[in-house]
Specification:
This protein has 14 helices and 16 strands. By secondary structure, it is an alpha/beta fold. The strands form 4 sheets. Strands 4-12-11-10-9-5-8 form a 7-stranded mixed sheet, with helices on both faces. A 4-stranded mixed sheet has the order 1-2-3-15. Helix 4 packs across helix 10 and helix 6 runs parallel beside helix 7.
Length: 454
C-alpha cells in the first residue's frame, strides 16, 4: 500500500477527492449555473482570484451569513469556521456593527473630515493594545506598506527584514522568500520588474543567530513580523525568540513592527498584549471593524514624535501614504461599535476555551488513528498540520503542506456543511460559535480520517 507524504494511503486520498468532487457537482446546481454566468464578465468567473482557492470545481456562491453560520445559493447551511479568513472572526454581521452601519448610511459615508467617533475609537485602541497614537487605513496591506515607509523615513535606512514564509498582505517589500540559503522573490509573483532582494532581507523564523547577523550592519529600518507565523501553516515562536527579537532590534536601532492581523485571535489586545511585547508599530486589519474594510496602525509616543520630525524634513507634497477612503465616517462608526460591544474581553472569554476544546478534540481524533499529524493553536485560531512535529520555521512548515490530502479533507467537510479556511487547515472560533458546532466539526474530522486511513 503506497502512502502519501502525509502518512495516508494515496489510493484512499484520490478516491475521496473524486467521490467528494462528484458529490459537490451534484449538490450545487445553482452555484454551478451562477459560476458559468459570471464568466461572461469576470476573469476566471470571480471578482477576485482568491475566491478560486477553495477545493471546489466551481465557486460556492453565498446567499446569506449570520453569526457563525453561512447559507449558499443552493440553500445549504454551513457551520463556518473560516469566518472570512479572520475578517469575520467575531461573527458575520454582529448586531451592534450592523446597526451602526445602517444608522450612518443615511448621514454620509465619507467626507474626508473627522467625526466625534475618532475620540472614542482612539481611546478604545489605546486601551486594547497599550499604544497611544493611531492612524486608520482601508486594509492591513495599506497599514503595513505605510508603516514601512515611516520606518525608512525615521531611521534613514533602506532595508527591511521579513521571515521566510511570512505574509503581510500585498506589500511588495515583503514578497521575499528563501531558497538554498539565499533570498528570492516569492514564487508566483506577477509583474515584478525590480529586484526586491536589494532592499529586503529574509531569515528563518526562530533563528536568532541568523537574525543577529542580518541586523548587525545596522542597515535595516524595521523587522516586520507576525508574533507567530500563520499563513504558511502555523509556526509558533520558540521560547526566548521574541525576547531576542526585541532585544536585537533595540540594540541595532531597528524598529519592530508587529502585524496582529491574524494573531489578534490570541486574546484581547492580540499576541502583543497577551505576551507583553513592546513593538514600535502595531498593525491590524480584517476584523477591527466587524468585517468592513478597515485597518489601523499604532505606535509609541517616541515614534509619533519621530514621525513628525520626518514629515517636517520631507517638506510639503504627497507622502505616498493614504487613500481617499481611508478613515471615512462609516469605518469609524463600525469600528466604534465593534470595539465597544463585540471585540471585547467577554468575547475572548467564550472564544478561547472553546477553541482549545476544538484543538484538543481534533488532536484526539488524530491520535486515536495513529496518524502522524499534530494540532497547533493561537487563542481562537487552531490548525491541524499533516506532519508529526510542530514546524520551527517557514521551510519546515512548507514541507508539511500536502495539497492533495488537504483538498480531500476540505471537500469532505464542505459537503457535510462545515467550512474551514481554504488556504491551509485553519479554524476560527467566534463569540457566537457553539459547543454543538465544535463537536460536529471534531466528529466529522474523525469520520473523514476513518475513510482516508481505511
Amino acid at each position: 500500500m503506497e502512502l502519501s507524504e502525509a502518512g495516508l494511503p494515496k489510493a484512499q486520498v484520490e478516491a475521496m477527492t473524486k467521490r467528494e468532487t462528484d458529490r459537490y457537482l451534484q449538490s450545487n446546481p445553482i452555484s454551478q449555473k451562477l459560476g458559468q454566468e459570471a464568466r461572461r464578465n469576470w476573469i476566471k468567473g470571480v471578482p477576485h482570484h482568491w475566491m478560486l482557492d477553495w477545493s471546489t470545481p466551481f465557486p460556492l456562491f453565498v446567499a446569506d451569513a449570520k453569526g457563525a453560520t453561512l447559507t449558499d445559493a443552493d440553500g445549504h447551511t454551513y457551520d463556518d469556521f473560516c469566518l472570512g479568513d479572520t475578517g469575520s472572526m467575531f461573527g458575520h454581521s454582529p448586531e451592534p456593527v450592523a446597526k451602526a452601519i445602517a444608522a450612518q448610511s443615511s448621514h454620509g459615508l465619507t467626507y474626508m473630515l473627522p467625526t466625534e467617533d475618532i475620540i472614542a475609537v482612539g481611546s478604545l485602541l489605546e486601551n486594547m493594545f497599550g499604544l497611544p497614537f493611531w492612524q486608520v487605513t482601508t486594509t492591513a496591506t495599506d497599514s503595513n506598506r505605510f508603516v514601512i515607509r515611516w520606518c525608512r523615513a525615521i531611521t534613514k535606512r533602506t532595508k527591511v527584514l521579513v521571515f521566510h514564509g511570512a505574509y503581510h498582505g500585498a506589500v511588495d517589500d515583503t514578497f521575499v522568500r528563501m531558497k538554498n540559503g539565499r533570498a528570492i522573490h516569492r514564487p508566483g509573483l506577477i509583474g515584478q520588474v525590480y529586484d526586491l532582494t536589494t532592499h529586503t532581507k529574509v531569515v528563518e523564523f526562530n533563528d536568532v543567530p541568523a537574525l543577529e547577523a542580518a541586523l548587525k550592519d545596522q542597515d535595516v529600518a524595521c523587522v516586520i513580523t507576525e508574533p507567530a507565523l500563520t499563513n504558511i501553516g502555523m509556526v509558533l515562536p520558540q521560547p526566548g525568540f521574541l525576547d531576542a527579537l526585541q532585544s536585537l532590534c533595540k540594540k541595532t536601532g531597528t524598529l519592530l513592527v508587529i502585524d496582529e492581523t491574524h494573531t489578534i485571535s490570541t486574546g484581547f489586545g492580540g499576541y502583543t498584549r497577551t505576551h507583553h511585547l513592546k513593538p514600535d508599530f502595531l498593525t491590524l486589519g480584517k476584523p477591527v471593524a466587524g468585517g468592513l474594510p478597515t485597518a489601523v496602525f499604532g505606535c509609541t509616543a517616541d515614534i509619533a514624535e519621530r514621525m513628525r520630525a520626518a514629515e517636517k524634513e520631507a517638506g510639503p507634497g504627497y507622502s505616498g501614504m493614504g487613500t481617499t477612503l481611508s478613515a471615512n465616517a462609516l469605518q469609524f462608526k463600525a469600528m466604534r461599535a465593534n470595539l465597544e460591544h463585540v471585540m471585547t474581553p467577554a468575547a475572548y472569554a467564550h472564544m478561547l476555551p472553546l477553541s482549545e476544546k476544538l484543538a484538543r478534540g481534533i488532536e484526539g481524533e488524530i491520535k486515536k488513528r495513529n496518524i502522524p499529524w499534530h494540532v497547533s493553536n493561537v487563542g481562537a485560531r487552531a490548525e491541524f498540520v499533516c506532519a508529526p512535529e510542530r514546524p520551527r520555521n517557514g521551510t519546515e512548515a512548507q514541507a508539511a503542506m500536502h495539497g492533495p490530502v488537504e483538498l480531500a479533507v476540505h471537500l469532505y467537510l464542505l459537503n457535510r456543511g462545515l467550512l474551514i479556511a481554504p488556504f491551509h487547515n485553519m479554524t476560527l472560533v467566534s463569540p457566537v460559535t457553539t459547543e454543538a458546532q465544535v463537536a460536529r466539526l471534531v466528529t466529522t474530522i474523525g469520520q473523514c480520517l476513518d475513510e482516508l486511513a481505511a
